[in-house]
Amino acid sequence: xxxxxxxxxxxxxxxxxxxxxxxxxxxxxxxxxxxxxxxxxxxxxxxxxxxxxxxxxxxxxxxxxxxxxxxxxxxxxxxxxxxxxxxxxxxxxxxxxxxxxxxxxxxxxxxxxxxxxxxxxxxxxxxxxxxxxxxxxxxxxxxxxxxxxxxxxxxxxxxxxxxxxxxxxxxxxxxxxxxxxxxxxxxxxxxxxxxxxxxxxxxxxxxxxxxxxxxxxxxxxxxxxxxxxxxxxxxxxxxxxxxxxxxxxxxxxxxxxxxxxxxxxxxxxxxxxxxxxxxxxxxxxxxxxxxxxxxxxxxxxxxxxxxxxxxxxxxxxxxxxxxxxxx
Length: 327
Ligand SMILES: [Zn+2]
Ligand SMILES: [Zn+2]
Description:
The model has no long low-confidence stretch (mean pLDDT 85). By secondary structure, the protein is an alpha/beta fold. The protein folds into 3 domains: 8-49 and 109-233, Rossmann fold; 54-107, no CATH class; 245-326, Alpha-Beta Plaits. The strands form 4 sheets. The chain has a 6-stranded parallel beta sheet with strand order 1-11-10-4-9-8, with helices on both faces. Strands 12, 13, 14, 15 and 16 form a 5-stranded antiparallel beta sheet that branches. The longest helix has 18 residues, at 256-273. Helix content is 31%, strand content 22%. The structure holds zinc ion (2 copies). One zinc ion is lined by residues 65, 67-68, 84, 86-87, 89.
């Protein structure tokens, strides 16, 4: 079998001709020509229905939490502000972009449905679009049959590679939107995903505000060793695994007061046990989970957390309202 060498095209969003949010004329013509040869386009658009990303429309900048190096999420209650979903740090929502001083720093409200509607509106040929998100059934055989009868596949899922011999072009509508997913391993997920399709030899298209982003450079050059050292530097700086331990302690119960009592005890005890090197943060507000339980969390990061956790055995192990997550 002969595999075509993949061609990676970076489309700078500032200079591209845009027909609708995140839909450039270049992308539309790629989809049209793929359809003409009887093949399919795979599109990644990572904004999920309830995700609260925000990106500067002029330069693609988004703010990151200074402790966690992950993107802040946009919240409107109690006030318009930015919140780190990992450590609960709150920052004011900027009036102008801290990077380019532009004023177009609105939250991204464009959902996947709107992308789908705009594609239908701007494409000249009639095309069948298949949307894959968390609501779509995950059964591989069902999915395969659905892809068979589609021209365009749009997915919100990162790191969940979609394989089908009919897929001919792979498109990322916004590199920044992917990067703004609040997860410390998002860069690794994006690198792996793009590298996977690169190895398939398919033409790849990435739309971005930041064509010079160091991660994009690593992706273009495809040097895994150099990417890993880039990743290591970030993880050392922000104390992430494997260079440190990251533990989330979740306190949850149907009774709000019980959650608050347990949290108070844990916070006091950890405050006494922690070293100066320990990163220690916790939720200041309490949220109701869908299961009817109230929830608050504590985040701990350090090279070794055993000195804290062994002293919390009674509070953690013997309590069904406390769950421990290691990363
Ligand atoms: Zn900007
Ligand atoms: Zn944070």
